[in-house]
Amino acid sequence: MDKDNYIITVCPSCKCTYRVAEAFLGRKVSCKKCGADFSIDYQDERKQKNDRQDSSSEKGKSLNISKDDSYLVIGKLAVKYKFVNDKQIQEALSIQEEGKRAGQKLFMGETMVAHGMISQAQLDFLLSVQKALSIRKLDGKFGTIAVKNDFAAPEEIDRALQEQKKIFKETKTVKLIGDILVESKVLTENQRDTILKGQNRFKKITSAKQKKSDVQDSKEQIKSDVELNLTVSEDKLNAFISIKKEKSGAITVENIKNNLQTEGIEYGIVDDVKIAEFLNNNENKKGTLKIAEGKPPEPGKDAYIKYHFETDPLKVGEVKKGGSIDFKDKGDIPHVKEGDLLAEKIPVMEGRPGKDVYGSPIPPQKPEDMKLKPGKGAKISDDRLQIIAKIGGIPEISTLSKVFVSPQLKISGDVGLKTGHVDFDGKINVSETIQNGFRVKGNSLTAKEILWAEIEMTGDIVVYGGIIGATIKTGGNIRAMYMRESNIEAYGDVVIEKEVIDSKIDTSGACIVKSGSVLSSTVVAKKGIQAINIGSEISKPCNLTVGVDERIKNEIDKIKEAILLKKEEHKEFKSRLEEIKDEPEKVENKIAEMAQVQDKLTVKRRDIENQIEELEKEGNKARIADAEAELSESDSEMKTREEDLEKLFDRQDQLSEEISDIQKKISDSRTDVKKMKDKIADIFEWSDREKGIPEVRVNDTIFADTTINGFYSLLKLTQNQKCVLIKEDIIQSFDDRSALNHDQEKTGSKISIRPL
Known about the structure:
Elements: E1 6-10, E2 17-21, E3 28-30, E4 37-39, H1 45-53, H2 73-80, H3 86-101, H4 108-114, H5 120-148, H6 154-171, H7 177-183, H8 189-198, H9 202-218, E5 222-223, E6 228-232, E7 238-243, H10 253-262, H11 272-280, E8 289-293, E9 304-307, E10 341-346, E11 354-355, E12 361-362, E13 373-374, E14 378-380, E15 386-389, E16 394-397, E17 402-406, E18 408-411, E19 422-430, E20 433-434, E21 439-447, E22 449-451, E23 454-457, E24 461-463, E25 466-468, E26 471-474, E27 478-480, E28 482-484, E29 487-490, E30 494-496, E31 500-501, E32 504-507, E33 511-513, E34 517-519, E35 522-525, E36 529-531, E37 533-534, E38 543-546, H12 550-580, H13 583-618, H14 621-689, E39 695-702, E40 707-709, E41 714-716, E42 721-730, H15 744-747, E43 749-755
Parallel strand pairs: 13-17, 18-19, 19-21, 20-22, 21-23, 21-24, 22-25, 23-26, 24-27, 25-28, 26-29, 27-30, 28-31, 29-32, 30-33, 31-34, 32-35, 33-36, 34-37, 35-38, 36-39, 38-40
Antiparallel strand pairs: 1-2, 3-4, 5-6, 6-7, 7-8, 9-10, 10-15, 11-12, 14-15, 16-17, 39-42, 40-41, 42-43
């Protein structure tokens, strides 16, 4: 490359500097560091020539865009959007130069408007694009800060920037990547605001939103210079005019259209004939005319998942007289083969933007996406749109929406002394009773009865008879005939046919007692409680909590504690690995040294043996005795050396095993941490999707002294109530409940009682 034919250009996003040939002038390039696209700008030919004649210190002059450059951002954008051509830009630059010599500071945009090159509306558009570029640059730094603080991964920032770019292309509005990351659950609002404050952008953004709100309010009623009232609806989709009392002269169609242009209304304006009819009709002067109508955005369609197997584990037969259930009515248990399709995702269908009466695009509401989640025994297709069975077995879906295939374990008879504890990674069918003191762990469970046993399942539990004295923890639903003296934790619904007595239930679903009572029990149910009766005249009062999911918070806290422990273990493993990383080499060197000594001793022994043979031939017994003593000493030394060498080999094997074991533990700990983080993400996603229902529904009687806790409020009944819906009402509207004060008077929340 000729030394005199290069220029220095700078990426406008990350400021990375590049040396390029002048032949690249005018070309669009991508920054290798940040990926931003930018053009290497043209400069005035005379200026380029002068630059080449300057001293060597001037050869690398930057072409980075700034407010003082000869080719400003506004000019560049005006050419890009074909509002002007290069010749007009050069003319505007000349006008600016003349203004500078006259002591005037002229901006490119103002110059082009003043000389009729572009309209004010076009300049406003270019300024908005310029502002968007500025925000995108700051958002690039926002992403760097988020990654540096471990708030987000680099690929998550890249996805957010791509989403921001896509939104701008579709709607010509800039959405901050902080907001995109919060909506996609990558950042919390506090993390986003912390970064914005660090960039000194928080106050600016807040005040800008307030200003926008003020502008919208002020445009609700616009005064007209031609004695018109112009009213724009809050959604900016409709504009109306009405005529004030005329002072002098008639209002014309042209007056009205000029007024609309002044106020920036340009889309969906009715034709001149309708305006003329409105003006000519004297009665209409007391009324209004819809002068413009925007185009509302067309909503998209949310993604949804279609399952190819029966997903309702509680689909059982009707309750017969006497309380028994005909479980045979449930039908055949679904069974799949390897390669069978289990579920498929129907992707989102994007909506179409609308346009308001000002001509600005109205973005459609973003459709809600969903993810397919394969569990054990299942895999996801390459296009991530299907879940396929990896093994033959029973297809199931967890409360957290994971699809898995379980092998089946059938136990004829009881779980007891004959079987011992049961730990099976699949579906467990027990034909009789799970006996006192035994533990059962697996994916899902069906049994006749559970008596004083410990149960832990990832999926659903169906008990044909009753649950007595059991401790049960499940990630799915529970269904049973009755429940007594039991302690239950569940993600899904707890459905009991008859009664719940002296039990504690904590569920993220609903607690439903179909045909009986809840007595002397504590029930926490995020999705509400339904029963025929709650309490009685003689039993201990019940304590009920609805709409709240403290168990999920506690579960997440436990997982986070486990993650911290795993990370500490990880550090210890790495520390130990660092301690012993050089030892194998040291041992190997010692083995090599020892082998050389052994070789020398072997050679020495062979020499002594040869010497003894010669002495025997000579018959020199005195010398033979000395040689044999020397041979014995050599053998002793060799034996010691061999023992030392054997120890070194043992140490080498131990180090190899220890290092391999530590490396496996480090790898396992990383995998475990990732699984736990994924579980937290799944729980958050599920919890956000499954909204709480703070209500208690009683079909007969709920007795006095029963306590009902809501999210913010508490009510203790002072008298019996019959056939009622007890519900917590939040009078004020809040999007973020965590920001609310728990004081009922301040939040306006209350628990009301109303008849069914």
